[in-house]
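Need residues for this backbone.
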């Protein structure tokens, strides 16, 4: 689901900075502010995209301390720069809200929003004048942001660190969700695939890097983009990767305990006091998101695509279902894991597409095998929670039965507690 891309004019470019003499397109580099004959001001990113400042509040959040020259450019040259989206409020600079919602949000890197759940927390984070630091964002621009986890403890958000991690617009843009084609799926298909799994995991289209909770499923804390858990060890891998990228980070003190829990596959929460808040605070850091992305690819996306290759799956829907399965069931050799489910599906179908079985026929068998696993999990600790999530299979079954094997949007989902449209 791509962010809504809207260009509006701004009352006066002079309110934003100082206009300089015109220049040619060749002189425009990443990080440049430009305008043409209209009053709209654009930021040119390192990849040549053209981003709009929706209003003066957004501009001032980035340039309140240092005014930056705005360069006049020929309208024809501006038109050759692809319109890439809107700039969002700088993380840590202001709090934001919309007129139709009383909630006040702190801004995270990449346009992620965190609802501040009490005035007490707002005062702790932004002082007694916090309510004077709230910017009203027009509803039409609220879609440029992504909702992430609420803030229930002021230790979970640090505005100074947020501003440090987004010390320029390029850093903030690079933390947004972007997808690219690869040999398995194109960017649009991957976006739908991730949106489906994210909806199941966190209720949002975009991955929640900050989410952390206990599901009473025998896996300890479940957190982040791919539901990394303390008992299975993938949360430990994320923190270890983060330690490599940013030594001495807020999660580093938990490294030894996470290693112990991973080695014993224990769901104990002992020795993890403050860990949830530290995880949420770390999620403001683009390097922590990078760590989560890298571990997700290594443990889940790449193995899922290779598993699909091994049985000659071609349909995007099949690959998306394999990915969603590995995220929930893991890639181990246990009877409830991805490999076991593929084995059951292949046996029940009399073979796989690699053996000449039609792929749609095999996928139906795979859907049934996974649903049976969710309803009758071998592990008693996960049985109840998994049974409640069997609706995940119904979403893919609906897509298959409707013939949408290429994940073409819009996709309407009405299942269990989800009632939404992926556009």
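Answer:
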């Amino acid at each position: 689901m791509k962010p809504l891309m809207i260009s509006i004019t701004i009352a006066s470019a002079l309110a934003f900075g100082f206009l300089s003499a015109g220049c040619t397109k060749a002189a425009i580099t990443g990080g440049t502010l430009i305008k043409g004959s209209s009053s709209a001001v654009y930021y040119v990113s390192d990849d040549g995209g053209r981003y709009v400042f929706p209003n003066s509040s957004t501009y001032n959040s980035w340039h309140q301390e240092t005014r930056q020259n705005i360069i006049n450019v020929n309208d024809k040259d501006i038109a050759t720069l692809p319109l890439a989206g809107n700039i969002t409020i700088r993380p840590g600079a202001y709090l934001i809200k919309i007129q139709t919602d009383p909630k006040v949000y702190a801004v995270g890197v990449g346009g992620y929003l965190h609802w501040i759940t009490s005035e007490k927390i707002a005062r702790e984070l932004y002082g007694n004048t916090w309510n004077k630091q709230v910017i009203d964002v027009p509803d039409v621009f609220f879609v440029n942001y992504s909702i992430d986890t609420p803030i229930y403890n002021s230790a979970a958000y640090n505005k100074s660190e947020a501003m440090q991690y987004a010390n320029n617009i390029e850093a903030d843009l690079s933390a947004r969700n972007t997808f690219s084609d690869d040999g398995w799926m194109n960017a649009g298909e991957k976006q739908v695939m991730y949106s489906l799994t994210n909806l199941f995991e966190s209720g949002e289209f975009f991955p929640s890097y900050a989410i952390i909770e206990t599901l009473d499923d025998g896996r300890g804390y479940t957190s982040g983009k791919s539901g990394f858990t303390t008992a299975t060890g993938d949360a430990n891998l994320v923190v270890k990767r983060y330690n490599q990228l940013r030594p001495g980070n807020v999660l580093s003190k938990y490294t030894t305990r996470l290693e112990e829990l991973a080695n014993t596959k224990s769901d104990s929460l002992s020795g993890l006091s403050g860990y949830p808040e530290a995880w949420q605070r770390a999620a403001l850091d683009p390097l922590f998101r990078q760590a989560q992305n890298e571990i997700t690819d290594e443990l889940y996306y790449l193995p899922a695509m290779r598993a699909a290759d091994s049985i000659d799956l071609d349909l995007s829907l099949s690959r998306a279902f394999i990915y969603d399965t590995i995220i929930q069931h893991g890639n181990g050799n246990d009877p409830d894991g991805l490999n076991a489910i593929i084995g059951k599906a292949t046996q029940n179908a009399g073979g796989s597409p690699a053996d000449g079985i039609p792929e749609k026929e095999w996928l139906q068998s795979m859907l049934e095998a996974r649903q049976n696993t969710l309803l009758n999990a071998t592990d008693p600790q996960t049985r109840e929670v998994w049974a409640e999530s069997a609706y995940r299979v119904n979403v893919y079954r609906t897509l298959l039965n409707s013939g949408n094997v290429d994940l073409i949007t819009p996709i309407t989902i009405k299942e269990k507690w989800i009632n939404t449209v992926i556009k």
